[in-house]
Amino acid sequence: MTLETFTEDFNKGYTYKGDYITIGGAKLNDEILANHFVNIPLKTINRHGLIAGATGTGKTKTIQVLSEQLSSKGIPVLMMDIKGDFSGIAQPGSENDFIKTRHSQMNLPYHSNGFPVELMTISVQNGVRLRATTSEFGPILFSRILDLNETQTGIISLIFKYCDDKKLPLLDLKDFKKTLQYLTNEGRSEIEAEYGRISTASTGAIIRKIIELEQQGGDLFFGEPSFDIADLMRIDEKGFGYVNILRLTDIQDKPKLFSTFMLNLLAQVYSQMPEQGDSGQPELVIFIDEAHLIFNEASKTLLNQIETIVKLIRSKGIGIYFITQNPTDIPNGVLAQLGLKIQHALRAFTEKDRKAIKSSSENFPSTPYYKTNEIITQLGTGEALVTALNEKGIPTPLVVCTMRAPMGRMDILSDSEINHIIEHSKLSKKYNHSFDRESAYEILTAKLERLEETQENKPQKETAKSSSKNQGSDLSKGFLKVVTSATFIRGAFGILSKIINNNSKKK
Ligand SMILES: Nc1ncnc2c1ncn2[C@@H]1O[C@H](COP(=O)(O)OP(=O)(O)OP(=O)(O)O)[C@@H](O)[C@H]1O
Ligand SMILES: [Mg+2]
């Protein structure tokens, strides 16, 4: 096989009708080839992808390169930053000798540039606060985040139903705890008459789990204002897509919280985005670093739900990219749906490693130019085996790609740079205040006060008036009490079950 035939095949494989991004240059026989640009068509970015490789091989920098190129095309991204090493993208990088040589060999000019960034958080870290209400979460995901068994999950579903019927908004954990306490004490006969018995042992266990979740910072995540998915799709005044970085460094040891949060987010994105027209480019690209955390310990049901949503979300123009050390970390049902594959070096220390290398090389298109299974272990830092989907959805020829260098800084931001971004963010102004409108907690507390006072033989009328005065002062914070049944139906479980039903009908 000669260089001429390689070039011919390569050009055929990596030239498209529509727009594309360039992620690097081809390498053959240890040589970086000039003017052999590895291009990925925007049209198939929503067909998802995998970025894999041993530690330190360049996965995170590859996400940075992809994010920068997408942002430059006006496509916003969301990065799940578990290691906290992504923020540098906000500032221009600096050229060093390594970058200079690499880019001149590819014949690709190097520019440095900073990108519009939003820093977000679901926990105590500084950033735009992502929140969801308990009712948006829905009973199934809420039970999962609490790690409940089937009986306990049944009680959770019952409480959601009760609150829905009684128009009691479940906004935060406080609401849920209060309702549970009410139903095991004063409200016991009421719920048992209408909905059946609930065991005190189970409700005790649920309360303990909720307290545990609060101690892990879960109370920061539940509540209002709940995050509007449309705010992930922003484009700045220069036409660059926003790079939304969700700071998740303190969630590594809480895989359940992380995976449930992810599934809820994907369900919300799916339900709120319209079907995509023919724009020929994605609406949003989501990168999930350390993706094994989502799949570890995931139940069969959760895996099925993730698989289904990954399959369906594509039609909304959303691409999901999983980043992990080993492709075997990703379940086969999900792996089979990933169009772009960027495989950095793998190490062959153990028999298990060798098996993983064999199985991932078998998943690549066959090539006369490379010995795939040998090359996987020999790739240098910032080099990867790449195959994408062309505009017709057919895999492009497998190529060893020397990744271009990120335009942004390859190191993290300083604390003052981080504060500067957060202080100047429109979104932090919108979301970084919590409010506590009248919901289950306040309604039930008022009800209990009334009960107490009636028992003390106080005139009931007066008490009712004073409690409504209290409500009035709560509401005077500027929020009218809007309670519609739709608020409750929006729960992620509702969305998921709808998706799953529709999907099985389509089959
Ligand atoms: N495309 C690139 N251009 C220039 N340098 C790169 C590139 N990719 C990787 N590097 C160099 O390699 C180092 C490690 O890369 P990176 O942090 O992306 O690895 P990783 O695979 O994400 O590692 P880990 O598994 O530990 O998260 C970077 O700090 C950088 O110096
Ligand atoms: Mg990394």
Structure description:
With 507 residues, the protein is an alpha/beta fold. It folds into 2 domains: 331 residues, Rossmann fold (3-Layer(aba) Sandwich); 158 residues, no CATH class. It is 45% helix and 13% strand. The protein is built from 21 helices and 12 strands. It has a 12-stranded mixed sheet with strand order 2-1-12-11-10-3-9-8-4-7-5-6, sandwiched between helices. Strand 1 and strand 2 form a beta hairpin. Helix 4 runs antiparallel to helix 10. The longest helix has 18 residues. The two termini are 44 Å apart. The C terminus is likely disordered. The chain binds adenosine-5'-triphosphate and magnesium ion (MG). Magnesium ion binds next to helix 2. This is Helicase HerA-like C-terminal domain-containing protein. It holds the Pfam family HerA_C.
Tell me the CATH topology of the largest domain.
Rossmann fold
- Can you identify the CATH superfamily of the largest domain? P-loop containing nucleotide triphosphate hydrolases
- Structural class, from secondary structure content? alpha/beta
Sheet bearing the most strands, described?
12 strands, mixed
Overall CATH class of the largest domain: Alpha Beta
- Please count the helical segments: 21
Into which percent range does the helicity of residues fall? 40-55%
The CATH architecture of the largest domain would be: 3-Layer(aba) Sandwich
Spatial separation of the terminal alpha carbons = 44 Å
